[in-house]
Design brief:
- It is a single chain.
- By secondary structure, the chain is an alpha/beta fold.
- Helix content is 36%, strand content 23%.
- The N and C termini lie far apart (48 Å).
- The model has no long low-confidence stretch (mean pLDDT 92).
């Protein structure tokens, strides 16, 4: 069969789809990752159900695929799986009878066994990478034991379950042997890694093993959590040249009252102390964060405190989301008192502050030379990234001159010649 997989949501979903695709390909099927691919025997939509916008995108994608299915000239199976199904299976089944089968987040093997092959999938098959071949996400755990008041992930994904260090390192070696140059370490909460199976935080041990054994030129850390941040992970980043000077740490807010209501396990003083610790140990590191505005109880004063925090902290990268209440979460009982228009105003104001900071930080890079990985060709440009930028979410470097033979995945030295708010321009140097 020709099977197309459409993946929505985060990089954890991407890994799930890639593992599913590996099993399907091993069973003899041809697998695509292409939203425009309509000439297939089956389409699998891997949904996201995290926040309101993500749920809306998932539903719209399913409806689009239903429309394509009903108008098509050939028989075509439509399968929907993932987070949205885990939360709303009964409602979706009732509203969308055109979908042939529904599967939750722990039923990947059943998609192969029940619907597509008629065989039993008894073991994990090799992943089929959907990202460009030179980088891949390395998922080190599933689920989450945090109790953040606004978050539905524990309801969807269940409790935290770590993979063993040996299993992760073996997969990392296979990915590098296949041509991957950059491993991006992910899970719902990477700093919780190891507590369930080693009875201690083992992220530092894992990073040390990956750095010394995987052979990856770049290793990047995502989805860290501020409370009880393991210091040995900071030491590992400082120790190994192939671990990128980059920390992704969603802080969500700075006001202690809001953080307490969010059940984040850290307050303003703890957050500031952690940032100071990062900058003392890793003075060259880029820090990415995400923030939430419009949370119930976020007064105008609390928002102004957050805005001033962003001015002072001067994050290298930042994203901002408007709060949306999620069914079954503790914060749902608080209602949704901040109007949507006010939430969007706060998002816009906060991002305007960050855009100016980003421009200033990028302007400071002009004239300096950075090692970059090339992601793709785009017209007359090579498009690459420094170690301070993660794919898909951070800045890119548009390289205006290039020599023959440079390919995606190659490392090149680039002198920065021009800065913009969210991108850089540069030229190759020997």
């Amino acid at each position: 069969m020709k099977i197309n997989i459409i993946t929505l949501g985060c990089s954890k979903n991407t890994v799930d789809s890639e593992n599913l695709a590996g099993g399907l390909q091993s069973a003899g099927h041809t697998v695509y990752f292409d939203r425009q691919q309509n000439d297939c025997d089956a389409v699998i939509v891997n949904t996201c159900g995290f926040i309101g916008d993500a749920k809306e995108e998932s539903i719209n994608t399913i409806l689009q695929q239903i429309d394509i299915k009903t108008r098509g000239r050939r028989a075509r199976r439509l399968v929907v799986c993932g987070c949205l199904v885990e939360r709303y299976r009964k409602e979706l089944q009732a509203e969308m009878p055109e979908v042939d089968a529904w599967y939750g987040v722990h039923e990947w093997e059943n998609i192969i066994a029940d619907l597509l092959t008629g065989e039993t999938a008894t073991q994990r098959e090799p992943r089929l990478i959907s990202t460009p071949s030179h980088y891949a996400y390395l998922k080190i755990a599933e689920g989450c034991n945090r109790t953040c008041s606004y978050c539905a992930i524990p309801l969807i994904r269940g409790a935290h379950h770590s993979r063993t260090i040996e299993d992760i390192v073996d997969e990392a070696k296979r990915l590098v042997a296949s041509g991957v140059k950059e491993l991006i370490v992910i899970s719902q909460d990477t700093t919780y890694y190891g507590l369930d199976i080693y009875h201690r935080r083992a992220l530092g041990d894992l990073l040390n093993r990956l750095a010394t054994e995987s052979g990856a030129p770049w290793i990047r850390l995502h989805y860290t959590y501020p409370a009880s941040f393991p210091e040995d992970a900071i030491e590992a980043i400082a120790r190994h040249d192939n671990i990128c000077n980059y920390i992704d740490i969603p802080l969500q807010h700075i006001n202690s009252g809001v953080l307490r209501s969010m059940q984040r396990g850290i307050d303003r003083e703890g957050t500031l102390a952690l940032l100071d610790k990062f900058r003392a140990a890793l003075p060259d590191a880029a820090i990415r964060t995400t923030l939430i505005v419009g949370y119930p109880g976020e007064t105008e004063s609390a928002f102004e405190e957050l805005k001033e925090f962003v001015r002072q902290a001067r994050f290298d990268r930042m994203g901002c989301f408007a709060y949306s209440p999620e069914e079954g979460t503790p914060a749902e009982t608080l209602g949704d008192p901040v109007p949507d228009e006010e939430k969007q105003r706060r998002v816009s104001e906060l991002m305007a502050v960050q855009e100016q900071i980003s421009l200033e930080k990028n302007q400071a890079k002009v004239g300096h030379t950075y090692r970059c990985i090339v992601d793709r060709m785009e017209g007359d440009y090579l498009v690459g990234r420094t170690e301070y930028d993660s794919p898909e979410v951070d800045d890119e470097v548009l390289i205006t001159s290039h020599r023959r033979g440079v390919r995606p995945g190659d490392f090149v030295n680039v002198r920065i010649t021009q800065a913009m708010e969210n991108d850089l321009m540069g030229e190759l140097v020997e």
